[in-house]
Design goal:
The complex is a heterodimer of chains A (113) and B (112).
Chain A (H helix, E strand, L loop, with lengths): L4 E3 L2 E4 L5 E6 L6 E7 L6 E7 L2 E5 L7 E4 L6 E5 L8 E8 L7 E2 L3 E5 L1
Parallel strand pairs in A: 2-11
Antiparallel strand pairs in A: 1-3, 3-8, 4-5, 4-9, 5-6, 7-8, 9-10, 9-11
Chain B lengths: L3 E4 L2 E5 L4 E7 L6 E7 L5 E8 L4 E4 L2 E6 L4 E6 L8 E7 L8 E2 L3 E6 L1
Parallel strand pairs in B: 2-11
Antiparallel strand pairs in B: 1-3, 3-8, 4-5, 4-9, 6-7, 7-8, 9-10, 9-11
The chains are: A mainly beta (113), B mainly beta (112).
């Protein structure tokens, strides 16, 4: 499989719990992006990595959110002390470089009860 | 901040019709423009990417145009099919190309 993969596809958690999502980009892509999408809206940028370096974070990414990309391969997005407002689809994308075509994974749908 | 608007928000057409989806953006200093398709509950599938120096890009029954100076792009779908039913999103990165600003999408329904 040469596409972007994300796990898990669905996550239901109780408010206050921590959750972690994983994204595996296309192997030769050095850029990796995280987005959040709520119902009826377009995706909103959260953060991106150039190889292992996290180069930009959106104001949407509160202190409860942390993302890593060890060794410049897969990436994880952790949300601590989840709130109901965190319920959304979390999308990962990768690209070969700046401004180039982004390829998206299937997303992880988070529901916080 | 870049604002991306897509009109109409929803569109319903009979099978076989040709149709046009519109995307407008407020800051013409863009790196490129990408059109995506999204099926309900799924991720995004890239359809076409137009570089800022290009005016048009074609793939099969799809044709996308870009007018940077007026801040507009259109996606033309020829001979629509029920399988084209989905939400269509346009996205633009700024000149730094670090992220994409998305519109809210056009939800297309093609009636058999």
């Amino acid at each position: 499989d040469t596409g972007v993969s994300q796990n898990p596809r669905h996550k239901i958690t109780k408010r206050g719990q921590n959750v972690t999502f994983r994204c595996d980009p296309i192997s030769e892509h050095n850029r990796l992006y995280w987005y959040r999408q709520t119902l009826g809206q377009g995706p909103e940028f959260l953060t991106y990595f150039q190889n292992e370096a996290q180069l930009e974070k959106s104001r949407l990414l509160s202190d409860r959110f942390s993302a890593e990309r060890p060794k410049g391969s897969f990436s994880t997005l952790e949300i601590q002390r989840t709130e109901q407002g965190d319920s959304a689809m979390y999308l990962c994308a990768s690209s070969l470089g700046e401004g180039l075509e982004q390829y998206f994974g299937p997303g992880t749908r988070l529901t916080v009860t | 901040k870049q604002e991306v608007t897509q009109i109409p928000a929803a569109l319903s057409v009979p099978e076989g019709e040709n149709l046009v989806l519109n995307c407008s953006f407020t800051d013409s200093a863009i790196y490129n423009l990408q059109w995506f398709r999204q099926d309900p509950g799924k991720g995004l599938t890239s359809l076409l990417l137009i570089q800022s120096s290009q005016r048009e890009q074609t793939s099969g029954r799809l044709n996308a145009s870009l007018d940077k100076s007026s801040g507009r792009s259109t996606l033309y779908i020829a001979a629509s099919q029920p399988g084209d039913s989905a939400t269509y999103l346009c996205a633009v990165p700024p000149n730094t190309g670090n992220q994409f600003y998305f519109g809210t999408g056009t939800s297309l329904t093609v009636i058999p």
